[in-house]
């Protein structure tokens, strides 16, 4: 079932002049704004990769990827009942999380007709007890009934491989390995390895040699690799 969050974001991006839920051949498009097709994808980007590649053959396309920067969790005593608790989730999303999605999207991005917009959102998540719904739940289990948009925050638009570097707080100068990248961005090395994979396969960085067993990279001007 479509969430309120998805509906609200479609309205946000359609504005006063866009059309919502437009049929185009075998595809349904979230928003059509002028000649631009806009797809808002809460789930994994891999799920729409082939659809986006096909649409980009004939139309300018914008893929909007919401990243939940802040979530208020509101629990009810029953579906549609009274609020029993409200708290902020300790989990916070950030722009750098987009790299997790791009691992399986490098066959679609970059493309001359494609824009990828990462947008930070604040949401309310409404939950109610799950026992008695189709399957057995523990007494204290809650399920998500809906997500609603509270605020649209910062966004970053990516058009070229080099734009991916905007998502990183820093990147080493000169040849670097994933250990140096991890230190520069303040993440664990396995995170840096995933980021380097995306940057390398899109052509944002290229391999220039090895130091011991570690591959060395340099930013820019690399040949895009097949995903």
Distinctive features:
227 residues; two-stranded antiparallel sheet; Arc Repressor Mutant, subunit A; 5 helices; 7-stranded mixed beta sheet; 20% helix; alpha+beta; 9 strands
Describe how the helices and strands are arranged.
Elements: H1 4-14, E1 19-24, E2 27-33, E3 36-40, H2 49-55, E4 61-76, E5 83-88, H3 98-102, E6 114-129, E7 142-158, H4 178-185, H5 189-202, E8 205-211, E9 214-219
Parallel strand pairs: 3-4, 4-6
Antiparallel strand pairs: 1-2, 2-3, 4-5, 6-7, 8-9
Helix pairs in contact: 4-5
Provide structural commentary.
This protein has 227 residues and is an alpha+beta fold. The chain has two domains: 4-159, no CATH class; 165-219, Winged helix-like DNA-binding domain superfamily/Winged helix DNA-binding domain (Arc Repressor Mutant, subunit A, Orthogonal Bundle), CATH 1.10.10. The protein contains five helices and nine strands, in the order H-E-E-E-H-E-E-H-E-E-H-H-E-E. The strands form two sheets. Strands 1, 2, 3, 4, 5, 6 and 7 form a seven-stranded mixed sheet that branches. Strand 3 (36-40), helix 2 (49-55) and strand 4 (61-76) form a beta-alpha-beta unit. Helix 4 crosses helix 5 (189-202). The longest helix has 14 residues, at 189-202.
């Amino acid at each position: 079932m479509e969430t309120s969050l998805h509906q609200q974001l479609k309205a946000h991006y359609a504005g006063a002049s866009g059309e919502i839920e437009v049929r185009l051949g075998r595809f349904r498009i979230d928003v059509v704004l002028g000649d631009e097709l806009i797809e808002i994808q809460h789930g994994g980007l891999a799920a729409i990769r082939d659809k986006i590649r096909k649409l980009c053959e004939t139309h300018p396309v914008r893929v909007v990827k919401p990243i939940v920067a802040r979530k208020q969790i509101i629990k009810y005593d029953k579906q549609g009942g009274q609020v029993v608790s409200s708290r902020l989730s300790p989990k916070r999303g950030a722009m750098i999380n987009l790299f997790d999605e791009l691992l399986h999207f490098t066959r679609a991005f970059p493309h001359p007709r494609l824009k990828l917009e990462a947008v930070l959102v604040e949401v309310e998540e409404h939950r109610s007890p799950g026992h008695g719904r189709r399957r057995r739940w523990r007494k204290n289990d809650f399920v998500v009934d809906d997500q609603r948009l509270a605020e649209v925050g910062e966004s970053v638009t990516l058009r070229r491989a080099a734009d991916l570097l905007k998502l990183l707080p820093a990147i080493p100068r000169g040849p670097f390995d994933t250990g140096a990248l991890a230190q520069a961005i303040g993440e664990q090395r396995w995170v840096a390895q995933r980021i380097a994979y995306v940057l390398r396969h899109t052509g944002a960085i290229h391999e220039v040699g090895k130091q011991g067993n570690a591959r060395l990279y340099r930013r820019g001007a690399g040949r895009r690799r097949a995903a």
